[in-house]
Specification:
The structure is a homotrimer. By secondary structure, chain A is α/β, with parallel strands linked by helices. The first copy, chain A, contains five helices and 40 strands. In chain A, the strands form six sheets. Chain A has an eleven-stranded parallel β-sheet with strand order 8-11-14-17-20-25-28-31-34-37-39, with no helix packed on it. A ten-stranded parallel β-sheet of chain A has the order 9-12-15-18-21-26-29-32-35-38, with no helix packed on it. The relative contact order of chain A is 0.06.
Chain lengths: ~350, ~350, ~350
C-alpha cells in the first residue's frame, strides 16, 4: 500500500541534497542495501558497507560526496546521509496515527484536562487533575496518574504507566511497558528493619525525549528526578531517584543509573553499563557498553571497563591470577630489587 | 484437587520408559525429591542429588538406567529422565486454560480476524487488521496492535503488548509485561541533536518460541528483527533491532543483544550477558552468565568473561594493579632481558 | 496545599527526639538541605553534607547528637536522623490514597473474595478465586490471577500483574509493571529441541515487602519461590524460580538472581549484580553493585568483582594482558628460579 513518489520531488521537499542520475524515477520504500528492491531507495552510511552497494537492487541510494564514485546507481548526495535518510524514511513511511478522539472504552476522570486534537486509545485511564496536551496520543492501556502532565504532540505507545504529578514535555515518545514516577529505592535501617523514606519528589521530562520499552524512571525522594530535553533512552533502562540526565544524552539498553547521579549533556552511554550513585559525569563523556563506573568523571573521554571474554579454559587459567595480582606485583618488585643488587654487586 | 493416576497407565501413555517396582501405585503430584509426599512422583536428574534420593518421601522416582541401583523406591527408568519428567508433570498438572470465548470487557475491533476456539481475556484490546489464530489464548489486559498476527495455539499471558505488524508463530508462550515490536534505538546525529530513524521493519517470531516476563524485542529499522523457531528467552531480555536469534537458542534473564547481531542456532547464552552490536555468533556457542561479548565468535566453544569476585579488601589490593598491568608486563620483560644478559655474561 | 504543622507537636507525636531552638515554628514540607525553603524541615544524614547545612534555607533540621554544633538553625536531635526524618516526611506528606470502593470499570469475577475497605482502581481484573485482603489497594490496570492472594493493607500500584495462586503478604508495596508468578525458565533438551518443564510451584511473598517497577519474580518449578518478610527489591530485578530471599534483605536495581539460589537474611546486594544459580549466600553478606557471584558465600563480608574502568587507550593497553596473565605469572616464576639459582651460584 506504499505510495510511489518521484525522487526529484522528495529531494526538493527535504532540501540539502542533489541528485546524480535519473531524477524522474519513483520510489515507494526506504530499505537497507541488502533488503532493497527496484522500488526502494537505500543509503550508504559507512564505507564498510560498499560491498553491499555493488549488489543492491535499490533504484537510488543516498550517500556522502566522498562516496559518489562508488556506484553508478542514481545517487542523492548530501553531507549527512544518515540523518537525511532518516527524514526521507519518515516521509515515505509516516508513523501510524490513531484517529483523533477518545475511544469509548477509555476511562477519563471528569477532573482531567484534555487538549485539542488528542487521540486516546482503548482501555486507557486518565486520573483526576491529569492534563493531556494538544495533539498528544495516548496508546491503548496507558494509565495516567493524578495531576500528571503530558506535553503537546507527545506519543505514548500502549501500556505506559505515568504516576501522579509526573511532568512529560512536548514531542516525546514513550514505549510500551515503561513506568515513569515509581518510588525511588530509599529505606533507612532501624532495629534490623527498613523504614520506607517517602518519595515525595517528582519526575520532570523535557521536550523531544524518547524512552524505550520497559524502562523505569523513579520519582525523586525530596527533590525531582530530571531528564532534560532531547535525551534518548533505549529499552530496560533504570533511572533511579534524583538522577539528572543532561540534554541530548543517549543511553543504550539494560543500563542502570543509580540514585543522585548527574550525567552531563551530550553523553553517549553504551548498553548494559552501570553508573553508581552520587556521581557526576561531565558533558561529552562516552561510556562503553558493559562498563561499571564507580567514580565521577571530570574529563570527557571514552571510558571502558569490560573484562575481555575468552574460551573457558583460557579464562580459568588467566583469571585465577587476578586473585593474586598484588602478590605477583610484589614478586616482580622483589626480582627488580634482586636484579639491581646483583648489578650493583657485579659492578663493585 | 489433583487427580490420582496409576503409574502403569502414565508410563504406557508417555512411552519410552519402564517401571521397576510396584506399577499399580497411584500418584497425583510431580514433586522435587525434597518436596515430595506419599502421592508424589519425583526424579533424579543428576547424581549429585542422590543424598535427597535417600530421604525422599516420594512414591516413585524417574531416573536413568545408570542410577537404577541408587534406591529401592519404585523407579521409572528412561534414557532422558529430565525430559520425560517434564512430559509427566504436564500430564499430571495440565496448564490452566481460560474458557473458550471472548470476555465481554474485551475490545475487539470489527476489522480484526479472530480464529476458531480462541480465548480472549478481560480488558484485552485487539486492533483493526490483527489476526488471532485458532485456539490461541490472549490473557487479560493484552494489547494487540494493528495487523499483528498471533499464531494458532499460542498463549499470551496477561499484559503482553504486541505492536502493529508483528508476526508471532504457532504454539508460542509469551509472559506478562513483555513488549514485542517497539521501535529500535536508531538516531542520527545532526547539529548536536538526535534525528529519529523511523523503524519500519517488523518483528517475526517463529513457532514454539517462549519469551519470559518484561522482555523487549524491538522491530527492525528497515529489515526485520527475527526470532527463529524453538527459541527460549528468559525474563527481562532485550533484543535490539535487526537482531536474528537462531533456532532453538536459549537466552537466560537480564541479557541484552545489541542491534544487528546474529546469533546462530542451538546457542546457550547465560544470564546477565551482553552481546555487542553487529556481531555474528556461530551456531552451538555457549556464553557464560555475566559475560560481555564484543567480537564475533566463529568457533563454537564456551566463552567466559567474568571478573572473579573477592572480599573487598582483596579486590581493592588486586584490582588496583589492573590499571598498570601493561607496565608490570614491561617490567617483567626488562627483567627477562637483564637475566638473559647476566646469563650471557656468566657464560662468557 | 501542604498543611503547616507546629514542630513541637510533630516531635511529640513521633517521639525519640528533642528540639534545640524554636519549638513553636511551623513547617509544611520535608525537603533536602539544598531544596529547602523557609517552610521546610530538612535533615543531615552524613557529615559530608555539612557544607549544604551552612547554606540551607530550611526552618529546622533533623540531625544526630554528634552534629548539634554544626548549625544554629532550630534542630531536632535524634539518634537515627534518617529513619526519624522518614517517619516525619510520611507525617507531612501522607501517601495518596484512592477512595474506598471498586471503580465501575473494574472487572471482578463473582467468585473473587474482596475484603473490607478495599480500593480497586479503573480497568482492574480480579479473577475467580482471588482474595483481596482488607484495606488493600489495587491500582488501575492491575491483573490479579485465579486464586491469587493479596494481603491486608497491601498496595499495588497501576499495572501490576499477579499470576494464579501467587500469595502476597500484608503491608506490601508493588510498583507498576512488576510481574509476579511467571513461569520459571526450565527446559529439558531432547533431540535438539527444548521440552518445557511445567512450572507448578507458586510464589510466596511475606509481609512488608516492597518490589519496584518492572521486576519479574518467577513461580517455582515444583517447590515455591519465596521472598521473606521485609525484603526490598528495586526496579528491574529478576528473581528466578525456586529462589529464596531471606528476611530484610535489600536488592538494588537491574540485579538478577538465578534459579534455586538462597540468599540469607539481612543481605545488601548492590545494583546490576548477578547471582548464579544453586548458590547459598550467608546472612549478612554485602555484594557490591556490578558484581557477578558464581560461588556460594559462607562468610559474611563485602564482596566485589568489578572491572575497574579506565580511559579507552589505557584499558586497551592493560586489558590485553589479561589474556596472557597465566603466561606472565609463569615468566615471573621462571625469573624467580633463575634468580635463586644465580644467588646459589654466587654464594657457592
Amino acid at each position: 500500500v506504499a505510495q510511489r513518489r518521484r525522487l526529484r520531488e522528495l529531494v526538493e521537499r527535504l532540501g540539502d541534497a542533489e541528485i546524480i542520475g535519473d531524477d524522474s524515477l519513483e520510489v515507494s520504500r526506504a530499505a537497507s542495501l541488502s533488503g532493497a528492491d527496484a522500488e526502494s531507495i537505500s543509503f550508504l552510511h559507512r564505507a564498510d558497507y560498499q560491498d553491499q552497494l555493488k549488489t543492491t537492487a535499490a533504484a537510488a541510494v543516498v550517500l556522502a560526496p566522498a562516496h559518489v564514485g562508488l556506484t553508478d546507481i542514481t545517487r542523492v548526495v548530501t553531507a549527512n546521509p544518515y540523518a537525511w535518510f532518516a527524514r526521507l524514511a519518515t516521509e515515505l513511511h509516516p508513523p501510524r496515527v490513531a484517529p483523533v478522539g477518545i475511544h469509548p472504552s477509555a476511562v477519563i476522570d471528569p477532573a482531567a484536562v484534555i487538549g485539542q486534537g488528542v487521540r486516546i486509545g482503548a482501555l486507557v485511564h486518565v486520573a483526576a487533575g491529569a492534563r493531556i496536551g494538544d495533539r498528544a496520543s495516548i496508546g491503548a492501556g496507558c494509565i495516567i496518574g493524578e495531576e500528571a502532565t503530558i506535553g503537546a504532540d507527545t506519543l505514548l505507545h500502549a501500556q505506559v504507566t505515568v504516576y501522579h504529578a509526573v511532568s512529560i514535555g512536548a514531542r516525546c515518545i514513550l514505549h510500551s511497558g515503561t513506568v515513569i514516577g515509581s518510588d525511588g529505592f530509599g529505606f533507612a535501617p532501624q532495629d534490623g528493619r527498613w523504614i520506607k523514606i517517602p518519595q515525595i519528589g517528582r519526575v520532570r521530562i523535557g521536550d523531544d525525549v524518547e524512552i524505550g520499552a520497559n524502562c523505569a524512571v523513579d520519582r525523586g525522594a525530596l527533590d525531582d528526578t530530571v531528564i532534560e530535553e532531547g535525551v534518548k533512552l533505549d529499552n530496560l533502562v533504570q533511572i533511579a531517584h534524583n538522577v539528572r540526565i543532561g540534554a541530548h544524552t543517549v543511553i543504550a539498553g539494560n543500563t542502570g543509573v543509580a540514585g543522585s547521579t548527574t550525567v552531563g549533556d551530550h553523553c553517549i552511554i553504551g548498553g548494559a553499563s552501570t553508573l553508581a550513585g552520587h556521581l557526576t559525569i561531565v558533558a561529552g563523556t562516552t561510556i562503553a557498553g558493559g562498563t561499571t563506573i564507580t567514580r565521577s568523571i571530570a574529563q570527557p573521554d571514552t571510558y571502558v571497563g569490560v573484562f575481555p571474554s575468552d574460551r573457558r579454559g583460557e579464562w580459568l587459567r588467566n583469571s585465577a591470577h587476578l586473585r593474586s595480582l598484588d602478590a605477583l606485583a610484589r614478586r616482580v618488585k622483589r626480582l627488580e630489587k634482586a636484579s639491581e643488587e646483583s648489578i650493583v654487586k657485579d659492578e663493585t
